[in-house]
């Protein structure tokens, strides 16, 4: 039954969240798959699907699935349903984006930024930046959710930075509350390396369910997908391999204040430090890779050495976690085999054959903005999950039953189309 002027069959729509979730997560994208996966009767599936199609939330694409028998029409979430707002907080910039539900970048902006600005000013700047992106792009439907990527350990359940990090002044500060006060939508916060890991898994390596992702950039960190989910540890500090310490005669000082950390031996900032000592101009991972690209022997030697240091710690991680795949990303991964060979050498040498028999160690496909895309992925994974979808449909119904003048643009358009 179509929705008429916002007072139609809204009950059928709110009841349809299970069907919406199955389609939006890609779990079931045909009528027959919906029947099978939902366990509901044909009549109920048809009724709920019709409510979703009438409200313009779900569309039937012309393409067909090879179903063995006759072709099946493919069900998808309409891109106009809504949009996602994401921000990647870096150490020197804020990168903001407005994305479609299938994570296409619709608009983005980059703002110069100092971590020293502190949480309140930063969150206000992000909220202003988000509003500007919304104003620039016009009608993008309802705001599905907001995601923030932070360069610090994050207690995911509480949405807070934990422990001392580059984000001074953020420790245990509420992030979700102030963002949710700006926007009527759920807010998710996670550590940038976890989000990069999530994106690589979901977009490039979904066939492996246990993945270790190592980010080797100006700093070093790791993320782990265990049985298809991000493994965060008890407080979000999982994967902090950059600050594991090794003994040696003359251990280098780390930027965390300890001696002999992996970062102080192998991160972009440490290689740049060693290159400066040799008379080269280098400040960060990008400068290191520029020298490697110019075939500067000292830069190549230091990158190879870094690979072996990372290999040493990776071998321990492999022994503990037994990943099925290791993906190496970050700026220094652009050095290719100069970095990878040392990691492979140490892992295959030190781990038991059972752990390495089918273990591949590969480079992440080169792509910009993966922390930002991973943040979008985190938002849609949550918003399209069964509880997230129930909440979303309630919000959409509420926006439809409000007086026309108060409705968000997307809701007004949906009512016009359906009425
Ligand atoms: Zn350290």
**What is the overall pLDDT average?**
89
CATH H level of the largest domain: which superfamily? ATPase, nucleotide binding domain
Quaternary structure state of the chains depicted: single chain
In total, how many beta strands?
14
Helix residue percentage? 40-55%
Small-molecule binders here are: zinc ion
What is the N-to-C order of secondary-structure elements (H for helix, E for strand)?
HHHHEEEEEHEEEHEHEEEHHHHEHHEHHH
Task: Give the number of helices.
Answer: 16
Report strand order across the widest sheet: 5-4-3-6-9
CATH topology of the largest domain: Nucleotidyltransferase, domain 5
Can you describe this structure?
The protein is α/β, with parallel strands linked by helices and 419 residues long. It has 3 domains: 10-77 and 385-418, Arc Repressor Mutant, subunit A (Orthogonal Bundle), CATH 1.10.10.10; 82-196, 2-Layer Sandwich (Nucleotidyltransferase, domain 5); 205-364, Nucleotidyltransferase, domain 5 (2-Layer Sandwich). 43% of the residues lie in helices and 19% in strands. The protein contains 16 helices and 14 strands. The protein has helices at 10-15, 17-24, 31-38, 42-54, 119-137, 176-182, 192-203, 262-266, 268-277, 285-293, 297-321, 337-350, 353-356, 370-383, 386-401, 409-418, and strands spanning 58-65, 72-77, 82-89, 93-99, 105-112, 142-150, 154-155, 160-161, 187-191, 211-216, 220-226, 229-230, 325-329, 360-363. A 5-stranded mixed sheet has the order 5-4-3-6-9, sandwiched between helices. The chain has a 5-stranded mixed sheet with strand order 12-11-10-13-14, sandwiched between helices. It has a two-stranded antiparallel sheet with strand order 1-2. Helix 7 (192-203) packs across helix 14, helix 10 crosses helix 11 (297-321) and helix 11 (297-321) packs parallel to helix 12 (337-350). The longest helix has 25 residues, at 297-321. The termini are close together. Residues 1-8 and 410-419 have low confidence and may be disordered. Zinc ion (ZN) binds at residues 243, 254, 256, 258, 261, 263. Zinc ion (ZN) is lined by residues 243, 254, 256, 258, 261, 263.
